[in-house]
Design brief:
seven-stranded antiparallel β-sheet, eight-stranded antiparallel β-sheet, alpha+beta, about 20% strand, binds zinc ion
């Protein structure tokens, strides 16, 4: 059967919904009536007057992890994410978000924002039961005025996070309580915000609430919701303006931030705050969606470009060891900023459909994210460094962070990351595929998975078999319920040289790096799409003209032999220091011209996670020589010598492993002079 137009189909439902848009109760009834045709979660058009997105995220459990990704989520579930509430009081039974007298601010919501998707993607009954307990408390304990969450804390900010957990819970379970609760809460906020405006963190993170406002608006309509979005934007920080005329071009000097005991963080400190900037990466895309102001469409790209130019580091992130910290690869980036950048790029990708966001998202997800956890995900850092030669309790030249920041542990420096880190892998999983505005499906990020969704009233599943990001070959087996025509949209990474796509062995024409290939045809069960994105080692340039070795989305690092020293036991886990047991001060004999001939050593998986030294699927051999004068200072690699750098030391063969596996590492190297 030919599939005509999914959009027409959705319009029918949209028209029915518009009749009762003012009343949530009758809107729910409309959804029920339409349920045999379309579940409440299938909304792949933005409701007018919102601008049309390029892509639409699929309901939470549409994408199941497979292969190494499944293993990674299982490692996470068996690690801190699956057990944190059993011993860390801030998300324990006394949490204010469970009705207790304990922590009543952001930590419960942060934990749930990752626990909900992890539990349902794995179908893990133990984790689903934990998740339900928290969701039920929030759903069953709204205040009479519509306010949600612990009564003793009225800050708007932690509720912005809980809304994201609630929408994921609704998508996974179709819980009918979610939309009415959100509706009443937003109505309360609409009444209250003029007299009690956004402040502190909420003022800088307003766009994350707009994500949930748009989610509800697409389901229920109602101009009140758009008015709320306007107020959030109006009261929030002007990120777009900040990056139109970017003033923070140097490592932040803590003295200039103007902190004063007992007063809120000054604007300057909040505008240069790493996690705020990471969250703000979605703000221009969302504001274009709501306002249709075309000047915002370029905003995400402008923010990324400015952060890259002045603070870019080789793992795909910008530096911010609390505040923006320049390009030196010994500066750090916080785990919260890593997972929030990922979520921002997932949102920006959906709205704007820019393939470059997929390249960036993969670079962060496949390097910075695993590189800041121990292999078993029982310990994490607050700040990771691209050039990280020692993790120890000592004062490093951070902008404002403390001496614990690069330890691997339970809550080094501050416990925000301990609560917030859980969303990284699960949300990546739920954004691997998206629905497209033209009634098809798009692969926007690659990893092994299985997609199960519906196009109109036809079930479609797609098996994605691959060892990507370690190998550029991806096999998609398309399995519609019966033959159906739809466009299949596939991201072709910008780094791919001579990429090719074949459908049932027939080549697809004009597959261009840095674009989306669209294959619009009738799909039958068992159709095979073979993607080949050849990966060769390449060199990019960083701080002091240093060389960084990459291969596809993976960044390679010198794996420094590591001695782990337990600093102290922390409940079910521990805090660890890591000391180098091998030399790291090398210059590499590699350049843009010679990188392609570097030796690659491939092997099959060891059964361990792929982001471990033992499980690493590809290593690269490079020649290098020591630079004796490049020495450690304050537990960091000293100032990176300007490239090219000379050395009369013996030539050595160095083995590089991917960044995510090398917990002590050098990533940006001096280039050896000829
Ligand atoms: Zn954090």
């Amino acid at each position: 059967m030919a599939f005509t137009s999914r959009r027409d189909f959705l319009k029918t439902l949209g028209a029915a919904a518009a009749v009762s848009a003012s009343s949530l109760g009758s809107r729910a009834a409309v959804s029920m009536a339409a349920e045999d045709r379309l579940p409440l979660t299938d909304f792949y058009v933005n409701r007018e007057p919102l601008a049309p997105s390029s892509f639409y995220p699929l309901p939470l459990t549409s994408i199941r992890p497979k292969g190494w990704l499944l293993k990674q989520l299982e490692i996470q579930a068996n690690g801190l994410s699956g057990h944190l509430d059993e011993f860390w009081p801030d998300v324990g039974t006394e949490s204010g978000w469970l009705g207790g007298n304990g922590e009543s601010w952001e930590r419960g919501p942060y934990f749930l924002d990752g626990l909900v998707p992890l539990a349902y993607q794995l179908g893990d009954e133990r984790l689903m039961a934990k998740s339900r307990k928290w969701m039920n408390w929030t759903l069953e304990h709204p205040q009479a005025n519509g306010m949600i969450g612990p009564a003793k804390n009225d800050d708007w900010w932690p509720r912005m996070v809980m809304l994201k957990a609630l929408t994921q819970h609704q998508e996974a379970t179709a819980d009918p309580r979610v939309a009415p609760l959100m509706q009443r809460y937003f109505a309360h906020q609409l009444r209250e915000l003029p007299g009690r405006p956004l402040r502190d963190w909420g003022k800088y993170r307003w766009q994350d609430e707009v994500v949930s406002v748009v989610w509800l608006y697409n389901r229920t309509g109602g101009s009140d919701l758009l008015r709320l979005a306007e107020i959030l934007h109006q009261q929030g920080n002007d990120w777009h303006g900040q990056f139109q005329n970017f003033a923070y071009t140097k490592k932040v000097n803590a003295k200039e931030l103007g902190f004063q005991e007992g007063t809120p963080f000054p604007d300057r400190a909040m505008q240069t705050h790493g996690v705020n900037n990471a969250m703000a990466l979605k703000s221009a895309a969302l504001w274009w969606l709501v306002s249709r102001d075309e000047s915002y469409r370029a905003g995400v790209g402008q923010q990324l470009a400015a952060l890259d130019t002045f603070h870019g580091i080789p793992n795909g992130m910008f530096s911010a060891d609390e505040h923006l910290a320049g390009k030196n690869p010994s500066q750090g980036i916080e785990l919260c900023a890593v997972v929030e950048s990922m979520f921002s790029l997932e949102q920006a990708m959906a709205i704007l459909g820019d393939p470059a966001f997929g390249d960036r998202l993969e670079k962060i997800a496949y390097n910075a994210l695993p590189g800041t956890f121990t292999d078993d995900m029982w310990a994490h850092q607050y700040d990771q460094q691209p050039n990280q030669i020692q993790c120890s309790l000592s004062q490093r030249p951070w902008t404002t962070n403390g001496p614990e920041s690069n330890l691997y542990g339970l809550e080094p420096n501050f416990g925000c990351c301990t609560a917030n880190m859980h969303q990284g892998w699960p949300k990546l999983t739920s954004h691997l595929w998206m629905a497209t505005a033209d009634g098809g499906l798009a692969a926007v990020v690659y990893a092994p998975c299985e997609l199960n969704t519906r196009l109109g009233n036809i079930s479609v599943s797609i098996e994605e078999q691959t060892a990507y990001p370690f190998d550029g070959k991806i096999l998609l087996v398309v399995k519609p319920q019966h033959a159906v025509r739809f466009p299949l949209t596939l991201r072709v990474p910008a780094w791919a040289r001579e990429p090719s796509i074949r459908v049932n062995a027939k080549p697809v024409r004009s597959v261009r790096p840095g674009s989306f290939a669209v294959i619009d045809r009738e799909w039958k069960a068992g159709d095979r799409v073979e993607l080949d994105f050849p990966m060769k080692p390449t060199v990019s340039r960083s701080y002091h003209n240093s060389v960084v070795v990459e291969r596809g989305p993976i960044v390679y690092s010198l794996d420094i032999l590591t001695e782990w020293r337990k600093l102290r036991t922390r409940g079910m886990t521990a805090d660890w220091e890591a000391y180098p047991q091998s030399a790291w001060n090398y210059a590499l004999e590699i350049s843009e011209r010679t990188a392609g001939s570097a030796v690659e050593l491939k092997r099959t998986g060891s059964g361990r996670g792929v982001f471990t030294t033992e499980g690493a699927l590809v290593r690269i051999e490079v020649q290098g020589r020591k630079i004796p004068e490049w020495q450690a200072e304050n537990g960091c690699a000293g100032e990176l010598p300007q490239s090219p750098a000379a050395s009369d030391q013996p030539r050595e063969t160095l083995r590089m492993v991917h960044y995510g596996a090398a917990k002590l590492r050098i990533t940006a190297f001096p280039e050896l002079s000829g």
